[in-house]
Amino acid sequence: MSGGVDSSTVAAMLKDEGFDLVGLTLQLWNQRRLAGHEGMPEQVQGRCCSIDDVYDARRVAETLGIPYYLINEQERFERDVVRPFVSEYLAGRTPIPCSLCNDHLKFDQLLVRARQIGADRIATGHYARNHYDEVRGRWILSRPVDRSKDQTYFLFGLTQEQLSRTLFPLGGYQKPEVREMAAQHGLALAAKPDSQEICFIPGGDYKAFIDAYLDEQGEVIPDTAGELVSTSGQVLGKHTGIHNFTIGQRKGLGVSSPNPLYVIQIDHDSHRVTVGSDHESLATTVRAGRLNWVSIPSLESEMRVRVKIRHRHEPAPATLRMVAPDVAEAAFDEPQRAVTPGQAAVFYDGDEVVGGGWIAS
């Protein structure tokens, strides 16, 4: 129970269906921890996983008459999500902390807790669907009815065991229907706004967070200052560190040009940041490693799929094949913009999640 309308409505739905419920909230990050550091707000309010959300979750549990527990996972969250996030950014990659959180905490530790209290399954407010396919003998993860809320991109890392013990009750509903159900159940947060930001980074200012976090830890940001160059190798200017850039970035490059420039490549070793035109930002292939297969046990031959390379990206048609152990390459039918190392590439066959991995190049 995150304290939002989705997980709260799920609890109400399952209570109506006669399930024996226990509400669990993971305490992941102290929102006051870096308040006041340079570039960070003095107060953080109305954020995902905040103390206000904990209060909201507890009130919903009281309204429904179910037991409720707050589980402190801050140490594990920092180790498995925050530290890798910072390290990846400093290396010039753009990580996805939400996927790491799902893999290492929400669907790993919650299942451990479920077993400890004698629960058979966990249920969440994610917009996704899952079912068991008797023919293939596998649990299948699929996109939800409400495409605008599709969260399967962040769930590609779930194992067969995790899928077998998870319920996604909202997969067949549109978000307005969910809010209506929340109101019908008398939940005070039926109109609560959705959180759109990473829970531990207020305002989405990654650089300010990294600066503040490393300062708190007594660490110094590595010197990765270097050159801004064109795709032909011409030096256009200097930059103060590769962690200030992401692939596809257009604003704040520090160089002027009669035509828009975009970050094309970030080289961790040379500290060079390559910029180019919109056309030069297009890629014909994407390679991903650390693969997890969902609807199939493994990829044995070429397969036609649609590939999603970031959360808001419309899956693009491509041909998928293995190019090395645990490395797959997708060749797009049409070039795609801003293929970003550190992000996920998730493969779809229709609505089904075939699998996915972490973008290497």
UniProtKB/TrEMBL annotation:
Limits of the tRNA-specific 2-thiouridylase MnmA-like C-terminal domain: 285-359
UniProt entry keywords in alphabetical sequence: ATP-binding, Cytoplasm, Disulfide bond, Nucleotide-binding, RNA-binding, Transferase, tRNA processing, tRNA-binding
Reactions the enzyme catalyzes: S-sulfanyl-L-cysteinyl-[protein] + uridine(34) in tRNA + AH2 + ATP = 2-thiouridine(34) in tRNA + L-cysteinyl-[protein] + A + AMP + diphosphate + H(+)
One MF term in the entry's GO annotations: ATP binding
EC number, as in UniProt: 2.8.1.13
Site (Interaction with tRNA): 126, 343
InterPro entries found in the cross-reference section: MnmA-like, MnmA-like_C, MnmA-like_central, MnmA-like_central_sf, Rossmann-like_a/b/a_fold
Residue span(s) of domain tRNA-specific 2-thiouridylase MnmA-like central: 220-276
Source species, domain of life: Bacteria
Active site: 101 (nucleophile), 199 (cysteine persulfide intermediate)
GO biological process, any: tRNA wobble position uridine thiolation
Region (Interaction with tRNA): 149-151
One GO CC annotation: cytoplasm
Entry's localization field: Cytoplasm
Enzyme class: transferase
Positions of ATP binding: 26, 125
Function, in words: Catalyzes the 2-thiolation of uridine at the wobble position (U34) of tRNA, leading to the formation of s(2)U34.
Stated family: Belongs to the MnmA/TRMU family.
Protein's recorded name: tRNA-specific 2-thiouridylase MnmA
Gene, per the UniProt record: mnmA
